[in-house]
Design goal:
Length: 222
Amino acid sequence: MPDPVFLPLSTYREFPPDEMRRRARTFRDEMLRRRTVRQFSSRPVPREIIEDCLAVAGSAPSGANMQPWHFVVVSDAQIKRQIREAAEAEERIFYRERAPQEWLDALAPLGTDENKPYLETAPYLIAVFAETYSLSPAGRKVKNYYVTESVGIATGLLIAAVHTAGLVSLTHTPSPMGFLNGILRRPPHEKPFLLLVVGYPEADARVPAISKKPLAEIATFA
Ligand code: IYR
């Protein structure tokens, strides 16, 4: 093994405490405005916006820096239709047969059902894949570590970037979603992680009356 190479931490910026407070608060307020949306406009979104958001996702920390993710950005109407049809087929079975009553009860406040028109309406579907292993340039299998954690973090950053850009997203998890490998021609060692629907909200979009837990409920200071 070659010796590790270290470089100066040239990208770090320290801020005076007041500015740090202001920045943390500003980001908090910005992120607390984020809502998951299920009514999308078909208004187009420039591809560069999506590229920048994906670069943010790709900046995520990952196990041994393996970056075990792959993002497929779908804007083609035919592929979107194929994805909608396959997702709705799975969801029909989910809502009518697979989901236990307890799960259906938990979903009731969201008002979701098997119809997923946004999979065709929204300008972009970003399919996030998790690479169970990577391939070296020579085509050899390289083990990945903490794949779920890594891809989850990258997806979180992607959602934050999309929101910061002024767009909305929906984390959609048709279950099972193996059909994405077929439609998007991804190899079997790439597991579909979720589908992020991205675009502008419909002009009269409505969101469920749900809220986030307060800080005291989600955090403890020891
Ligand atoms: N995948 C289904 C059901 C669903 C499940 C959970 I957990 C949600 O938070 C929302 C929906 C669907 O997309 O409708």
